[in-house]
Amino acid sequence: MGNVFAKQSWAPEAPKKVMLEQAQAQQVAQQAGAPAGPPALPFQFLGRFTDDGQTAYFLQIDGQNVVARPGEKVNDSYLLDSVSGNTMNFVYLPLNQKQTLVVGDTN
Q: What is the phi/psi pair of residue 15, to 5°?
């Protein structure tokens, strides 16, 4: 007869070998100095306005409202590269890497 007071759980026990391999892979990546990607986009999409065929996009960054148009720098670190459908494409300037912000239905 087993121990009736032993810890019991419905969750399956995670394989220890896999967890050990994942931890080793993370440690190797950190030691190799894997380049970090750009940070998460700091923007919140508020809306857009079109006047005479020119569209301006309203964004909020750290509590400040900003107006941006494609081709313009949004702050010191980002450039609004293009807008296509419901996505805004930014370039993180320090690493020259593209990032996309999905804004959903903008109507």
A: -65, 125
pTM (global) more than 0.85? no
Q: Degrees (nearest 5) of the Cα angle 46, 47, 51?
A: 145
Give pLDDT, residue 62.
Answer: 87
For the chain, 107 residues long, the average pLDDT of each consecutive 10-residue run is: 71 58 64 71 91 91 92 93 92 93 72
Q: Are strands 54-61 and 64-68 parallel, antiparallel or unpaired?
A: antiparallel
As a whole number of angstroms, the distance between CA 91 and CA 70 comes to 11
Query: How open is the CA angle 30-31-33, to the nearest 5 degrees?
Result: 70
